[in-house]
Amino acid sequence: MDRAALADFLRRRREALQPGDVGLPEGPRRRARGLKREEVASLAAMSTDYYTRLEQQRGPQPSEQMLASLARALRLTGGERDYLFQMAGRNAPSSVPAATHVAPALLRVLDRLEDTPALILSNLGEVLVQNRMAAALLGDRSGYTGLARSEIYRWFTDPAERLRYPAEDRDRQSRTQVANLRAAYGSMGAQSRAGELVRALRKASPEFADLWERHEVGKRFGDHKTLVHPELGAIELDCQALFTEDQSQALLVLTAAPRTESYEKLQLLRVLGHERFAADVSGD
């Protein structure tokens, strides 16, 4: 671990960013350049003290998960992310699809979406980042680990995952999940993380095993869907997907038609989401 190089790199990348670059309000005139340390720490879901110690060359060696969070917070390119890992004494993540490093171009779009649910998914159905509206609609997806990070895996192993969809739409959703995984498996290969998911699911779920044998392939996100919120009930939404060039990540944006009941529910959800966020912050 090269503490001096790591600290200098973090400081320079932080100073190169402006609040608007990461979806934060500009606020009053700032005396210092770039983002504040506490802002980077918040974006990376770590304590300000921990981040400050890294910049002061006195922090512990960050974990790979922590480094990935820092790379997202600082909007690093793939090369910059690899350098960050190397300076921290960690092996740089593989550049294969479904890496946890979020495409900066998608992040820039997500940062500007505050009034509607939006999230970035890997091609294995892992939520890499979500805005507050998406967390209010779908729940916070950041706490899952291992295979359970994949929504595809949870769909076939955790009955609670299906409660977000009406009962009459769950069969179609099952086929969609398998078709998406089949597309990832085709591009990543049998020995990849996609292959690991397939092997685990064939053992865990007879439904998945049956659908897998159909060989349906496709990157599908329903243009129109109904989601069931535990407090607000059914919400009809239109879904638009923006893919990276290599198709390994997708930004999903969920909207409701104006002047509809679902639109009004989204507006209420926006208020509820901000209230819960404020409560969480005050509770810390």
Give a written overview of the molecule:
This protein has two domains: about 80 residues, lambda repressor-like DNA-binding domains (434 Repressor (Amino-terminal Domain), Orthogonal Bundle); about 180 residues, 2-Layer Sandwich (Beta-Lactamase). The protein starts with a helix and ends with a helix. The radius of gyration is 20 Å and the shape is globular. Helix 9 packs antiparallel against helix 10. It is built from twelve helices and five strands. Strand 3 and strand 4 form a beta hairpin. With about 280 residues, the protein is of the alpha+beta class. The longest helix has 23 residues. Strands 2-1-5-4-3 form a five-stranded antiparallel beta sheet.
Overview in brief:
The chain has 284 residues and is α+β, with helices and mostly antiparallel strands.
CATH class of the largest domain: Alpha Beta
Task: Count the DSSP helices.
Answer: 12
Strand-pairing-aware structural class: alpha+beta
Quaternary structure = single chain
Question: Mind describing the biggest β-sheet?
Answer: 5 strands, antiparallel
**What low-confidence regions span 5 or more consecutive residues with pLDDT below 50?**
95-99, 277-284
Distance from N terminus to C terminus (CA atoms, Å) equals 31 Å
CATH architecture descriptor text of the largest domain:
2-Layer Sandwich
The overall pLDDT, averaged over residues, is: 84
What proportion of the residues form beta strands (DSSP E)? 5-15%
Strand order of the largest sheet: 2-1-5-4-3
SSE string: HHHHHHEEHHHHHEEEH
- Give the total of domains: 2
CATH topology of the largest domain: Beta-Lactamase
Form type: globular
Counted beta strands: 5
Q: How helical, in percent, are the residues?
A: 40-55%
